[in-house]
Amino acid sequence: MGTKxxxxxxxxxxxxxxxxxxxxxxxxxxxxxxxxxxQGSGVFVRRLPDDDDLTLGxxxxxxxxxxxxALNQMRSDVDDQGDLLAEIAARLADLYARIGAEWEQPGQQxxxxxxxx
Length: 117
Prior knowledge:
The chain is built from four helices and two strands, in the order ααββαα. The protein is mostly helical.
């Protein structure tokens, strides 16, 4: 048995991904015989992975294409959310302006009454 790899939590933190993502990757590598889990001890490298082990059963170009599509979809979603947030901010600003004007008017009227009275 080879080198022990970091824990799922450590890998998730280091790679900025969820623990579930790390677990799925380890499951994939375990199924291919690249790593082996030993209960109570951790996960150990059995052999170096080859290109087929790293492609998740799909050609690398297709993986990159799918990742690029997903990234573009996320960018579009963020842009849509940004547009929505800008619209909400504009409406809130308008609402605050209206409320502020209504609140100022009664106060200003009372001040005018005091001055004239």
